[in-house]
Write a structure and sequence with these properties.
The protein is an alpha+beta fold and about 180 residues long. The chain is built from five helices and five strands; from the N terminus they run αβαββαβαβα.
């Protein structure tokens, strides 16, 4: 990353810290929750019948994340699904640092507004304070060419691993980033 992009990332993080200090009422910056990592996961159901699908999904996921995607292999054979141990059945990317902040900014400000009839994302957090977001169609990301996914559309799961174990603190953190949560 160049200095301009790093400055932009720091500016976003400073704004988020200021908003959190006001909303949570914490005195020390070290008490504030933060996003440790963002994990993008894609399950590839057509990988059993067509091996070219795996390469295409890896290419698209790498373009979305600006980082190389990794194949996920089956841990055991499942005869009913025609899956053998060691077969590629998914792809994932783990983002940290500046790439993570850039991805969060792109997701919130560019991709989510492109969803048709969008009314906000769910307010449900898991018991550890982490947040999971399911995207039905990766076509909302500007890096994806609609022609490349028209024959095999796929979705993805986005997991935000947050340092706080409190759902309220995690909600305040994502609201500070500008996550468009659904109205109650």
């Amino acid at each position: 990353m160049n200095n301009v992009q790093q400055g932009h990332v720091r500016q976003i993080q400073d704004e988020v810290k200021k908003k959190l200090i006001l909303s949570l009422g914490k005195k020390n910056i070290m008490e504030l929750p933060f996003v440790m990592k963002v994990v993008l996961n894609v399950g590839i159901r057509d990988a059993v019948s067509d091996s070219k699908v795996v390469a295409k999904v890896l290419q698209i996921l790498s373009a979305i994340a600006s980082q190389k995607a990794v194949k996920r292999l089956a841990k055991k054979s499942i005869a009913g699904f025609k899956i053998r141990e060691g077969m590629p059945i998914g792809a994932s990317v783990t983002l940290r640092g500046d790439r993570m902040v850039d991805f969060i900014n792109k997701l919130i400000n560019v991709s989510l507004p492109r969803i048709r009839d969008f009314h906000g994302v769910s307010r449900k957090f898991d018991f550890d304070g982490n947040y999971n977001l399911g995207i039905r169609d990766v076509g909302i990301f500007p890096e994806v060419d609609f022609g490349s996914i028209s024959e095999n559309p796929f979705g993805m799961n986005i997991t935000f691993a947050i340092s706080s174990s409190s759902a309220a603190d995690s909600l305040a953190l994502l609201e500070a980033y500008g996550m468009p949560f659904a109205k109650k």
